[in-house]
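Explain this record to help learners:
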Amino acid sequence: STMCLMWFSNAPLSEDEKQGRYGSVLGQYSNNQQFYDITMCQAPCSEPGCCCISMLCFCPVQIYMRHRALNHVNPGSGWSDYICCQGYFGGCCCVQPGSLGEQVCPLPCMCLEACLLPGCAVSATSIVIRDRYNLGLDDDDVRLIRCNNCLQLFACCCFLLALVTPCEGDDAAANIIDCIADTVFCGVSACMTAQTYHEIRVKENMVVPSGVTMHRT
């Protein structure tokens, strides 16, 4: 399913694209010159086991990966640095990361995040590592942002079309769109998880500076 990303351009992000949900977060890394050791399209071959397990056991894998990423950045910290989506995607009204009981019940909160906000959960763990090592955006990252924005726009248009046209084929079309979106999400999230897992393994085999602390958003 990662071949879906190849349909999109890898040209540098425009200012408009940096305003999207993922673009606003990842756009700040667009000028960095270091990158993940492997791209997302290389992840299935480099870490096939992680890719498969990520698709079959999504929530447990995301919980494990967040714990591993946080403790890679700040060894021995356990769940003490955890907040919902690590604060990267903001909140809504009175629901704000860091005020949802994460300090009291971090593991249950992470379980809810993985179940209710799967896309943000995967991306937040990846950004923890990207933020720690100032990793830039490779071609696959740029395509991912464009793919995500395109799917969201397409789904929105189809939803609006269904409201104004009493067509019997609306339900079938919506189901097809949902199936495509789910397939793309499963493939991309598995590749992103495997990419992050691989990067942590590579960095842990290198000398990592001590005394690093987490900086929450």
Notes: The CA atoms of residues 8 and 98 lie 35 Å apart. The longest helix spans residues 170-204. The mean pLDDT is 82.
